[in-house]
Hints:
Elements: H1 7-15, H2 22-55, H3 58-105, H4 110-115, H5 118-133, H6 135-159, H7 161-208, H8 210-215, H9 219-271, H10 277-291, H11 293-318, E1 340-347, E2 356-363, E3 368-372, H12 379-386, E4 394-399, E5 402-403, H13 409-413, E6 416-419, H14 430-435, H15 443-452, H16 456-461, H17 479-491, E7 497-501, H18 509-522, E8 527-531, E9 543-548, E10 551-556, H19 558-564, H20 566-582
Parallel strand pairs: 3-8, 3-9, 6-7, 7-8
Antiparallel strand pairs: 1-2, 1-4, 4-5, 9-10
Helix pairs in contact: 2-3, 2-6, 2-10, 3-5, 3-11, 5-7, 5-11, 6-7, 6-10, 6-11, 7-9, 7-11, 15-17, 19-20
Amino acid sequence: MSKKDNLFYYLKKTYKYAKNERKYLFYFMFLCIIMCVIEILSPLIAAKSIISLTSGIWDQVFLMIIANFGIEILRNVVNFLSSKYSLKYYFAVKKNIQNDIAKETLKIETATLNQNSSGIFIERINNDTDTIADIFNLMTDYITYIITAIGIFISIFFLNKLIFFLYFIFILILFFLQKYAGKKILEKKKIEKKSSDVSSGFISELVRGVKDIKILNAEKSFLNRAEEVIDKRNEAFYDTRYTRSSFRLINGSVRDCLDFLIMMVGLYYILEGKLAVATMIVILNYRGNIMSISGEVDNFIDTIKSFTLAAERIFDVIDGVNYPKETFGTKNLKKATGEIEFKNVSFCYDKDEEVLKNVSFKINPNETVSFVGKSGSGKSTIFNLIAKLYEVNDGKILMDGIPINELSKDSIRGNLSIISQNPYIFNMSIKDNLKIIKNNLTDEEMIEACKMASLHEFIMSLKDGYDTIVGESGITLSGGQRQRLAIARALVLKTEIILFDEATSALDNETQKEIQKSIANMQGEYTILIIAHRLSTVINSDRLILIDDGQVKGTGTHEELLKNNKIYKKLYELEIKKDSKKN
Length: 583
């Protein structure tokens, strides 16, 4: 049996998440044993009460009333404590698993994340964790109930063997019927889970992209698509529940037949004087427990199958089975000087087309270098590779002379900041957007970063200032304000290397000049790499690297490239023409 199909393998992995809360599971198990005794004694006391009442033995009636009252009080206390310890254990395990799957999701390769819908991970974190966190409580519950029912079942054997065999035969029929039903329902649930992943992913995209949907006047097509995925999800849910209901109908009919036979046999034996009325009362009082044993076994099996399916989906992510994780080296580089070198680097996002072809260059510490070239030439890819968001196909990238494949994650990403063209702004206050990057950020550092990003005055004009909630993806801010907040967010880290990936492209000319001044103020103190949307904004860089068709086609100052490089000269002249037309 492979690990993937091994129930005990997944149970062992899940149990590890209990950590310091395992005592609550043992408390719960102990209380279930007490409940098992209560369930066996309760029908006996009820039967004895009826017999004493009909026989007029009033002192026994009184004793049975007291006994029944005591056992019911005990049942209530046990139920309360069971629920308390069950919930403590459940929420502790769920929290630990959710934290771990969230942590491991952040480790997944960027390429893999790009290929999968966000709904896949949302469903696993929100729903599948529910299923596996409660498994030990549910198993204990079901096992306790089944043991209780088996104990009662054996008791009936000594009371009347024919009734025992009737129960035994019908329970076997119900068991195999429910086993077949469980197999069919599991198949339906797998389809249901997949449709749920797709639906969650699409709804998430719809909510995040609502502004663009409105601007594009695409509500109708998006609603049609939403209706389609929701319908498929609901059809899958309906199919699962309809299949379950159909088997419940058959199951119920079999139970009704058993009920009829038990009553007829019991009546026959009583009339023949072969069975006491009191014994029949006891058998009837136990009937509910016996009748439900096959159902509880089926529920137990169904719970195990649901658990195994959910655990497989969760540990696929945590263990990186179908979602490969990023890999890093072990060398630590606490404070980089800022030197970066590409040696014959080639890279492609897929096998069909190379984005970078044998690229080589070297960036010196505290140098400001701008990458220029047409859109799609590979400039942003260079930044992604420096941050090790992707692995190179050939060649080496070095930071301070060390191949980045040998460096730890913190050594790479802890020494650089990327300010992207379309930064993601979190749905929280401006202050929290900055403090989530650096927990110990002081107000002075925050204000200084915002001033450098030309954002402080705008923030102070807001009613709630730095406590202003910016909405999902920073929806309440303009494009330029979002980028300035992203710049401030990067500046609070004070890393030695700062990458500007067309970070000023959405800014107006005045703000763009202010950001350029901020960059100029940082020159000489940081290694600054810039991907330029407009050549005129980077002509004062220490050096320009021209990228064309995934290759380095020139390097030098603005004046040197303008004089010696035809490709650069053409790009610059085209920009001048565009500017002159605008004016």
